[in-house]
Amino acid sequence: MKSTGASLSVKGLKKSWGPTEVLTGIDFDIEPGGFLTLLGPSGCGKSTALRLVSGLDEVSGGSILIDGKDVTKVPADQRNIGMVFQNYALFPHMTVAENIAYGLKVRKVAKPVREASLERVAELMSLGPLLDRKPAQLSGGQQQRVALARVLVSERPLVLMDEPLSNLDAKLRTEIRSEIKALNKSLGITVVYVTHDQSEALSMSDTVVLMNAGRVEQVGTPKELYDVPATVFSARFIGTPPMNLLAVADVSLPDGVAASYGNDPADLLIGVRPESMQFPAGGADYSASCRITSIEYEGSVSLLHLTSKSGASFILSHSGDTLPSLEEKITVGWTQSAAHLFSKRTGERVLTSS
Ligand SMILES: Nc1ncnc2c1ncn2[C@@H]1O[C@H](COP(=O)(O)OP(=O)(O)OP(=O)(O)O)[C@@H](O)[C@H]1O
Predict the structure, then answer these.
(1) pTM of the prediction?
(2) ipTM, 2 decimals?
(3) In what residue span(s) does the ABC transporter domain sit (predicted)?
(4) Are residues 190 and 278 in the same domain?
(5) Range of the structural domain that residue 90 is part of
(6) Are both 19 and 116 inside the same structural domain?
(7) Which residues of 41-127 form beta strands (DSSP E)?
(8) Which residue has its alpha carbon closest to ligand 1 atom 1?
(9) What span, in angstroms and rounded, lies between the C-alpha atoms of 151 and 84?
(10) 202 shares its domain with 247
(11) Are residues 155 and 280 in the same domain?
């Protein structure tokens, strides 16, 4: 099953339903064989963007290029795109084998070729022993694997997946996640994936397009989004528990940071990830005095829920052996490199000269 992925370029994509603009002009690009995820909260427009790329809905503005060719006005069935959705709708009266090979049969692919493709994909997806069963005789995870196999066997250079794992339990999600990723790499197909689950996005993607209210908040590799969030929204959306954001009044800053910020220092928000905060604070560049309000034991770490001088809540992920006690007043710290500075007013990351 050789397959070479297509490139995809989305430019200024807009969609309105009546007077409501649900996509306000989004841009992203993906190289052949890449894995790009549209990530964002419910209702931000991820599925809408995917449906426009697939051709199921018409754009209100902007363009879609596949392998450099403008397909914005090309009907869905001529875009050569494979799709897997959350409700994977297998044909109940057909066996697994018939379901998988259905698309090839419709396209009048010769029987020996069909059979060879089926055998190959069944092996890849470990579906061999299930080929004669009907969908009702499969578990949810097995049905999802059949839906994926059906798309993979079709050898489309571009595959769109809309929350394909959302019906599965946590263990299966993790298993199928890595299967999808491995298939993306071994077959070279280009994948555009939609999810609201950040851990799914971070673990699978080469590129993440983080969306918020119909626009793109940030585009980058998973590491870029985690290490250098461009906005307060990115900082809070990526990472579990989310990044802490503290007002200047609650933090003791290194000399010069506030002064080097051209604007009113009270506009600064100091971001720090729970896992980058240290207790005890010894030698840290930034520090904050606080009180421990609760302690959540999570096995490898304990989450210390803290309250700042001004009453703001934040979290420190503590991996040390000795735990402080509840209600104890402590000082926590973090290094310059773990500090993320944002403007409260614009929500954007700001750089200081220090
Ligand atoms: N056919 C439609 N008519 C009117 N509004 C629609 C239509 N389809 C989607 N919308 C609206 O567009 C917005 C974006 O929806 P979309 O399904 O793209 O979001 P999403 O990010 O995929 O959300 P979810 O993760 O919940 O699926 C929502 O406010 C939704 O109500």
Answers:
(1) 0.90
(2) 0.95
(3) 8-238
(4) no
(5) 8-232
(6) yes
(7) 61-66, 69-70, 81-85
(8) 17
(9) 7
(10) no
(11) no
- For residue 245, report the distance from its CA to the centre of ligand 1, in Å: 30
Token look-up 């397009």 returns 209
Nearest residue by C-alpha to atom 8 in ligand 1: 48
Averaged pLDDT score across all residues of the chain: 91
Cα dihedral across residues 176, 181, 185, 190: positive or negative: positive
Which residue is closest in CA terms to ligand 1's atom 4?
A: 17
Instruction: Give the pLDDT band (50/70/90) at residue 278.
Output: very high
Within a domain: 317: yes
Same domain, 318 and 275: yes
Asked whether 51 lines ligand 1 (CB < 6 A), one says: no
Mean pLDDT for the stretch of residues 163-177? 81
User: Which string of b and e fits 272-305 if b means at least 16 CB within 10 Å?
Assistant: bbbbbbbbebeebbbbbebebeeeeeeeeebbbb
Cβ–ligand 1 contact at 195 (below 6 Å): no
117 in a structural domain: yes
351 domain residue, yes or no: no
49 with 151, same domain: the answer is yes
Do 16 and 80 share a domain, yes or no?
Answer: yes
Same structural domain for residues 157 and 291? no
Q: How confident is the model at residue 3 (pLDDT cuts 50, 70, 90)?
A: low
Last residue within a domain, chosen from 184, 199, 232: 232
CB 198, CB 238: distance < 8 Å: yes
Rounded CA gap, 154 and 16, in Å?
32
